[in-house]
Amino acid sequence: MAEVGRIHSLESFGTVDGPGIRFVVFMQGCPLRCQYCHNPDTWDVNRGTEYTPEALFEEIIKYRSYMKFSGGGVTFTGGEPLLQAGFLLEVSKLCKDKGISVALDTSGFILNNTVKELLEYTDLVLLDIKNYDPVVYKTLTGVSLSPTLKFLDYLREKNIRTWIRYVVVPRLTDNLDSVRQLSGHLDNYPNVEKIELLAFHKMGEYKWKELGLEYKLYDTKEPDRELMKRIADIMGTSGKTVTLNI
Fold it and tell me: Residue 154's domain is classified under what CATH number?
């Protein structure tokens, strides 16, 4: 039976999920429960719109000229795209056959044989490391940090081009000692070429209310430029390029 994927939404001209102009596919389903998530409506894998690999590819291919001109491609995000790795494997094969670059935006929580095969068709991984302190990570996401670090090791082993994403949340992920430890850890990964610092924002807060979920960061303020710059300076000691998204 052909794989069928469940998709939350599509964005045809994305510019923040990898290089160039991206066709961004927000997959449905996620095993993490991040306190700052701005897409909690992607958590339930049974929601969303069903697509076959061919139907999704027909949407992607429409924008190939924009991708080619800008050095872009398709980015699979979520939710957690690797929950539907079998479906994405089929779509990625179609994309690669037409010369379309493939990026995955993932927490790195899932690593199995299907994911490993999918990574063979992946040009760039945007790896979200929520925090380097395992206790804070568990509090923040509801799951363990260790699978993500093992995933990072696998990316190094296969020399897969990787960007690290780190969301700065005041009083939650802004502990400078933890940031220093993460920066030091990333020294060991030559495949990591960039660290993207993303400022926490509340644009998804209304979704929590609509879904009847408790939003624990109601009183948390967005980080100021000074804090973002401080963390960027620390991350920069890893020798990687650091970008700010404020």
Answer: 3.20.20.70
